[in-house]
Amino acid sequence: MTILLLPEKPIAVLPSLAVAIGLNEAIALQQLHYWLVNADNGKHYGRVKAHRTWVYNDYNEWQASSFPFWSISTIRRTFGLLEKQNLVVSEMEYGADLPGGKRKWYTIDYGVLTDLGCAQNEQGGCVQNEQRVCSK
Question: Which stretch of DSSP H or E encloses residue 23?
Fold first, then answer.
């Protein structure tokens, strides 16, 4: 047996989501969803604002906790693309007591994800919208 096959907790990404938004973006969105669902675990501090859960991380923290296989520039670019697609919403918080004087909070706009044609099934997975596939 090799230590390179699932001795760690794997990152699972549905192929239909990767087709819809890109592989890197699907990986990042899945990890963000995981942290939003598990925001109270103490690693990624969560808050609820306007009926949405938000988490914060800087790019170094994203790399250390979720994406050790990506460079900081890949993480920055990937989150930027998710924000351009309106799948990820971010807000900057400023304050003298914050490290570097600022903190960036993230959440997912699940409505945009559904409109994209990737609706969640009962297990929380992505199901490609038949109408969107046919309209391509």
Answer: helix 23-37
CATH T-level fold of 15-135: Arc Repressor Mutant, subunit A (1.10.10)
Instruction: Tell me the per-residue pLDDT of 17-33, one tens digit each, with 9 for 90 and over.
Output: 898 899 999 999 999 99
Tokens of 39: 């925001």
Domain boundaries, the chain: 15-135
CA proximity to 54, closest of 66, 71, 39, 73: 39
What is the rounded distance in angstroms from the CA atom of residue 104 to the CA atom of residue 62? 12
- Among 66, 59, 73, 64, smallest CA distance to 104 is for 59
Using the Cα atoms of residue 19, residue 21, residue 25 and residue 27 in order, give the sign of their dihedral. Answer: negative
Neighbour count for residue 87 (Cβ, 10 Å):
22
Q: What is the rounded CA–CA span in Å between residue 92 and residue 105?
A: 6
Predicted model pTM: 0.77
